[in-house]
Amino acid sequence: MLRWVGLASRLVVGGVWIWAGLIKLPDPESSVTAVRAYQLLPSSAADAVGRALPMVEVVVGVCLVLGLLTRISAGVSALLLLAFIVGISSVWARGISINCGCFGDGGHDPDAISRYPWEIARDVGLLAASLLVVWLRRTPFALDNVIFPDRTEDRDVDQEP
Amino acid sequence: MSTKNRELNRAERAKAIQREQAAGERNRRILITLAIVVVLSAVVAAGVVFSSGGSKKPEASSALPPATAQGQALVMGDNAKAATKVVVYEDFLCPYCRQFETSTRDFLQAAADKGTVQVEYRPFHLLQDDYSTRALSAWAAVLQQGTPKQALSYHDVLYDKQPYEASPDKPDGAKLAEWAKDSGVTSSSVLDSVKKADDPEFVKAADATATEAGVDGTPTVLVNGKPLEGSSVSDMADNLEKIVSGS
């Protein structure tokens, strides 16, 4: 049963990453603006992160949906989400009102603060789903199952007296 | 006894073979994993380069549209009869202005090149911070002593490299001069003025023009004399792009 929850988590989290990345991909300048708006990274680093992030999101999303290097991808997904949660909490604590830029169009937005709790809740949910996939190791319908066939049979042989 | 020994040996040998196979299998998996990681990293790198149109360097001034200096303003586009005239009041430290600049620059430059749009950039000092006047004075030096194209390029660079509004150590005169060099300013006397970055006369005059026009926030953008509408900066940029592509 849990395997199927794992599959659902993989597809939902992967789908969200692909969606979020594709929206941002055509407009790298807007992505840089979104990262800068957090005022966390030195501005040159914010520039690089802003340009790289959309593509990283798409690739992580595709890997999760296909089930390619599932554990590593889910781990990267969890780390990114953790960074986003820290970022949003940090602007919230500092009273900076910005659009989180999660799905494009970042930058200053006067009514953004009321949305922070819901954005953090959403990211915590996605983080939990990512961690479930990391913990499960194997989920149905994953490319990994073809490239790295399960070794449980070998282990069974080992364990036979 | 001896049969038992033989059986034991056989079992050990089988185990050794299994161990070897397991090790081989592990190596194979590590190699495949590494190969996939390398391919994916290459995909990310290619995507980044592709989406940002190669590495972004300050435009060579030859690639920029024609420009002229008019008092404290820089006018981009040489068609005085352009269908769309845009006036931009902005502060070099204002992050909204940076967002407006980076999201409108490409289509405004292209339209100014074609002669359908003329843009008047009117930087002034709004934010109560030394960097705001320092950057404005540095830009004034390039506008008044350098060429208009250098001033246009420097204007873009100042926004690209804009420090955070809350940053405790914002760029000093030396840094501003370095950026001016990146924008194509070569004359050492101009660079010296940029480095001094102190031109209260210019700042006062630019501020007076903005106050006279009733500007109390940045960016304030006028299109053919009317304020550009928009619920957010990206909305403003989208609206401006629609107007410009229609002209």
What would you note in describing this structure?
The complex is a heterodimer of chains A (161) and B (247). Chain A is an all-alpha fold. Chain A has seven helices and two strands. Chain A has one domain (2-141). Chain A has helices at 2-24, 28-37, 43-66, 70-94, 116-136, 143-147, 152-159; strands at residues 98-99, 107-108. In chain A, strands 1-2 form a two-stranded antiparallel ribbon. In chain A, α1 crosses α3 and α4 (70-94) packs antiparallel against α5 (116-136). Chain A is elongated, with a radius of gyration of 18 Å. Mean pLDDT of chain A is 90; it is low at 153-161. In chain B, α3 packs across α5. The longest helix of chain B has 50 residues, at 2-51. Chain B is 59% helix and 11% strand. The mean pLDDT of chain B is 90. By secondary structure, chain B is an alpha+beta fold. Chain B has two domains: 1-55; 61-246, Glutaredoxin (3-Layer(aba) Sandwich), CATH 3.40.30. Classes of the chains: A mainly alpha (161), B alpha+beta (247). The A-B interface holds A 25-30, 32-33, 36-37, 39, 43, 51-52, 54-56, 58-59, 63, 68-69, 72, 99, 105, 107-109, 147-148, 151, 154, 157-158 and B 18, 22, 25, 29, 32-33, 36-37, 40, 43-44, 47-48, 51-52, 95-96, 98-99, 102-103, 161-167, 232-234.
